[in-house]
Amino acid sequence: MYRRLFAALVCCALLGAGTAAQAGAVSGAGETREVAGAPAAPDIPRLTDDRGRVLTLRGWNVEDKVHRGDQALSAITERHFRDLHRDGFNFARLLVFWDDLEPERGRYSEDYLRRIERILDWAHKYRVQVLIDAHQDVFGPAFGHRGIPAWATRTDGLPFTPHPEDWFSEYFEPAVQRAFTHLYEDEDLRRAQAAMWRVLAGRFAHHPALFGYDLINEPMGELRPGEDLPTAAARIEAQQITPMYNRLADAVRSVDRDSWIFFEPTPIVGEGVPTALGRIDDPKAVYAPHFYNTAMEAGADYDPSAGWIESYEAAVTEYPRRHRVPVIVGEWGPLNNGLPNMGLFYRDALTSLNRYSSGWAGYVWCYGGGYCALDATGVLRPHKDRTAAPYAPAVAGTVTSESHSFDTGAYRLDYRAGHGVTEIRVPARTGGWRVSVTGPAATPTPDLPSGRSSTARVHARPGGEVTVVVTPR
Q1: What is the DSSP pairing of strand 210-214 with strand 260-263?
Q2: Predicted confidence band at 172 (pLDDT cuts at 50, 70, 90)?
């Protein structure tokens, strides 16, 4: 999440510089939206499974940032995954912390690994695929947060002043910035970070719920004297973060040949600045930016006239087009959901996200206020409920178009069939759903039941043009 200082630094750096806008306007009230897999972004590849089916991931971040040690991850329960499944989601980005996994150098917590495994078991029970995210906020516990262990934090005695009212600005404290430089440059810390990933991937490579690994959350770095933020970010991404990702990908591949590897740019991409990351040399790499707006993070309402979503889309799609990698947006969603324009924000954001990505994980799947997706009773909160809609987790063939109407709830998928079974997932809904299929295909269940999430499976003759329409009953 981004705060005022970051916004001010970016805005100052970009004064007088135009920001490219995505061609074509986002949909307005009452319109049907294009979604993931439609020809709006044909030059960005889609995720596929080992059978060649086109995949879509829809879900949320799952976290426990409060508990540590023998209570670590205790706030995450089976209910989280039962409710994800109920609302039709098939994906969870699970936050784990290196400081809990390796509290002392070379000593890995077997208890922490068992707790992660228990969460993966719950996910598998409810058919949710999990991305393990090596999370850091403001580097780690040396600065009052979570992530890189204190024993791996080197500051050269530089100062650090906490900013509890605006924690993201702590990334610009000299001690924090120097700690990132040492993580990227010190050979022993490089080896320790790679070893940590070999432990995680070696333990969970064959778990049926495991989808992939997010190598580090929101990486940052050290600004040099006289550098503006975009210049510094480009240097850090190209010269420090790209080599780190390739080192860590090699570490993962030494114990896991099959899972997906997710990698993130610095958070400046959220301000419409394309990343300068280089190529990640792995055949199953996924570009995983975050989608936040500094003004909204500071409490402002969504302003569609500002063009932020269009600028973000233009910036965030430049890398995957150039390097031909799929996109999963790893975090998104505003803090204040009750402002007047939030309904329009969710329409516009989902329209954009689903136009170019293979999926997303909202922030965050918890019960209560603030960023929480659900209220205390477990019901999706207003506007966040727009994320629960029919979609196709797996398409056996080539998607030619998809659309979803916010007004009617209807979903349509057009595809040219290949070999295999296409899956359509719907959230729980009173009254259920009706599925109609045209073309050389059939689904054995035209009516999906009321009150629970369901999956329709469509069998089609290869080469046939198939249309699937899902409507509320």
Answers
A1: parallel
A2: very high
Amino acid, res. 166: D
| Encoded amino acid at 246, one letter | N
pLDDT, one tens digit per residue, over 264-297 is 999 999 999 999 999 999 999 999 999 999 999 9
Output the average pLDDT for the chain.
Answer: 92
Pure H helices in 137-228: 174-185, 187-204
d(CA 197, CA 248): 7
C-alpha 60/C-alpha 90 separation (Å) is: 9
- Who contacts 216 (Cβ-Cβ below 8 Å, separation ≥6)? 134, 136, 244, 248, 264
414-429: pLDDT as tens digits: 999 999 999 999 999 9
| Rg (alpha carbons) of the chain, rounded to whole number | 22
DSSP strand E in 264-362: where? Answer: 285-287, 290-291, 331-332, 359-362
Q: How many helices (H) and strands (E) does the chain have?
A: 12, 20
Chain-centre distance of CA 388, in angstroms?
16
| Residue 10's pLDDT band (cuts 50, 70, 90) | low
Q: Would you give the DSSP letter of residue 224?
A: P
Calpha distance 219→239 (Å, rounded)? 13
In order of 7, 38, 258, 459, the CA distances from 419 in angstroms are: 48, 20, 22, 9
Contacts of 107 (CB under 8 A, 6+ apart): none
- The number of residues making up the chain comes to 473
Identity (one letter) of the amino acid at 45?
Answer: P
Helix (H, G, I), strand (E, B), or coil: what is residue 113? helix
